[in-house]
Amino acid sequence: MRIGKAFKVSAHGAHIPAIGYGTMELPHRPAELVAAAIAAGYRHIDTARKYGTEERVGEGIRASAIARHELFVTTKVTEENAREADFLRSAETSLRALGLDYVDLLLVHWPQPKVPFSETLGALAKAKRQGLTRHIGISNFTLAMLEEAVRVCPEPLVANQIEYHAYLPQDRMIAALKKHGMILTAYCPVARGHLLDDPVLGEIGRLHGKTIAQIALRWLIQQPMIVAVPRALEEQQIEEDLDVFDFSLSDQEMQRISALRKRKLRIADPPERAPKWDVEEV
Predict the structure, then answer these.
(1) Active-site option among 42, 51, 164, 167
(2) 280 domain-assigned
(3) Distance, CA of 275 to CA of 142 (rounded, Å)
(4) 117 found inside a domain
(5) How many folded domains does the chain comprise?
(6) Residue 202 to residues 114, 168, 242: CA-CA distances in angstroms?
(7) Which of 20, 86, 214, 275 makes an SS bond possible with 210, Cβ 3.0 to 4.6 Å?
(8) What percentage of the chain has pLDDT greater than the value 90?
């Protein structure tokens, strides 16, 4: 299945396929799984220096023999490398690991409060100007951090990659990103499996002949300016996660799923690096 132009989300010149393949914690056959994802039709691959998968992602890309311009690759610089020299060195290390001349999107992986944002975001912009990446963005930034990042960054930011799924409200962040013409990239889009037993999603899935995971992903990408990067450990699941473009949810179904936000379940909250998250009222 190929993802056409209609299934890309655009911001500040970046055109990002709405479903990407997430490569965090791929314990078995990571290069094979990346190659399988590309063969299935994925054109967006998401990795990070912190994941330890960049080398295997590169192997999978080469094994697929896909033309470079057909693929959208995202990677991230960890917060330990927030200083300018370290940041640029990390980006160059990522390119060597991936075996690529550039990535399509480079993100600040987690905010680093010990380093001025002006320095980190300045280094991010410099990475773009040096041709290490075509586009830049942030990840795990709160509302206040987003506003500061936009203010101090010399280049336009394309996305904020954050946890977002049907059990976690992100209304205020979505509104803020819309104001800045930015995309929300949703990681943990099925809440690391917590959504898979939900009766509302199950009922809607049966009506459409789709799995709960497919309903959860469709709910995300049917919203404006949302991209999702699910992880899959088997070829069948890889194909399943991409098979969400042949149906639509009704307004009522979208509202029923949105009502699940009241659970306020956050999955990714590492105490050593997570900021104080914004409180969303539902």
Answers:
(1) 51
(2) no
(3) 7
(4) yes
(5) 1
(6) 45, 18, 18
(7) 214
(8) 95
Strand partners, 159: 183
Name the residue range of residue 122's domain.
5-263
* Closest CA relative to residue 177, chosen from 226, 109, 121: 226
* Predicted pLDDT of residue 147: 98
CATH of residue 61: 3.20.20.100
Q: pLDDT for 22-43, tens place per residue?
A: 999 888 899 999 999 999 999 9
| pLDDT tens digits along 209-244 | 999 999 999 999 999 999 999 999 999 999 999 999
Burial 164-202 (b: 16+ CB within 10 A, else e): bbbbbbbeebbebbeebebbbbbbbbbbeeebeebebbe
187 is catalytic: no
pLDDT in tens, 96-125: 999 999 999 999 999 999 999 999 999 999
Q: How many other CB atoms sit within 10 Å of the CB of residue 235?
A: 15
**Residue 54 token pair:** 């960049």
Is residue 226 within 8 A of residue 17, CB to CB? The reply is no
Q: Is residue 269 part of a domain?
A: no
Torsion angles phi and psi, residue 210, rounded to 5: -125, 160
In a domain, 282, yes or no: no
